[in-house]
């Protein structure tokens, strides 16, 4: 870093302008001694101070809340009933990627009005392999490999199913490299769920009747007559050279 020292005399006339490296204490002390001997005032190139009115206006300014929140912990919403509706599990091999994406997921849940808990650490998955370095007489020389998978759990409570799907879609769209996701979504129905299922089954049957009518043997027997007509045609006889197994008697 370079700073420029401006040496002025009593008549406010610049006498010396020297670039001084930060940390060169001996050189700065020499300049101060010389200025003291000659009664010269030393000033740095710092900006002039602001007037009180401008300083008050600058002090009253603040960053937007969304920008300030980036430097703080993610905000959370309190759950009213505590009913879990979604369990999102994050997996990765890098702690930095995990912490970054977990922070991003919690902030997205807050702005979608979803109460979220976590990230809750889950047990690590440790996998080890031992493979020979070479074959034949060198097969006793082996090499060990280890892979540790880190996991975190984020649970959404009291959220609407549509909002949860929007949250998961947003996370999938902005997925971070090296972080895998697995979501378990829970949906709850009312006490008359059996009646709703029966009505849905009836609606499906109405559409299936028309499709199922296209399968199986036709009741009018037109299929057999059509086959006989094809086998007895002149073009088919020429192709089979008059020796069709289907037309033998």
TrEMBL record:
Keywords for the protein's UniProt record, in alphabetical order: Coiled coil, Ligase, Ribonucleoprotein, Ribosomal protein
Small ribosomal subunit protein uS10 domain: residues covered: 87-184
Record has Ribosomal protein as a keyword: yes
Coiled coil ranges: 191-218
EC number: 6.1.1.2
Pfam families, per database record: Ribosomal_S10 (PF00338)
Entries under SMART domains matching the protein: Ribosomal_S10
An MF annotation (GO) of this entry: tryptophan-tRNA ligase activity
UniProt keyword ATP-binding, yes or no: no
Gene Ontology cellular-component annotations: ribosome
Gene3D superfamilies: Ribosomal protein S10 domain
Family: Belongs to the universal ribosomal protein uS10 family.
HAMAP family to which the protein is assigned, alphabetical: Ribosomal_uS10
Protein name: Mitochondrial 37S ribosomal protein rsm10
Organism of this sequence: Coniosporium apollinis
